[in-house]
Amino acid sequence: MLLGHNDDYSADRVMKVTVAFNHFGSALIERMPRARFGYSHVVNNRYDEWLMYAIGGSADPIIFSQGNYFIASKNSDTKQVTKSETDRKWSN
Q1: DSSP for residue 75
Q2: Is-contact 33 68, C-beta < 8 A?
Q3: Which residue, among 27, 33, 38, has the nearest Cα to 61 in the 3D structure?
Q4: In terms of residue numbers, what domain contains 29?
Q5: Number of structural domains, the chain?
Q6: Does residue 42 form part of some domain?
Q7: Which of 29, 45, 66, 72 is the most buried (most CB within 10 A)?
Q8: pLDDT tens-digit map of 35-83
Q9: Beta carbons of 1 and 24 less than 8 angstroms apart
Q10: What is d(CA 10, CA 35) in angstroms, rounded to the nearest whole number?
Q11: Are residues 57 and 65 in contact, defined by beta-carbon separation less than 8 angstroms?
Q12: pTM for this structure?
């Protein structure tokens, strides 16, 4: 689930998306979702044993993750819940 055209398409700064009430099953790799620019509210989703990361962003998105349920794999290399590909730091 990739939200946003590409890292150079700044018109997506006005994008507002809610990703809610999904079950992301085991063996999915990444992008549940991955956002470029804009505002994404990721709420009340269940994530089971993903293989790389669950929620990611690039091109300075705002991602509000709320009320999600994460069950990580026992493999310590695949426990990354969030991935940021921006210069901006994640905040609480």
Answers
A1: -
A2: no
A3: 38
A4: 2-7+14-74
A5: 1
A6: yes
A7: 45
A8: 999 999 999 999 999 999 999 998 889 999 999 999 998 888 888 888 8
A9: no
A10: 12
A11: no
A12: 0.85
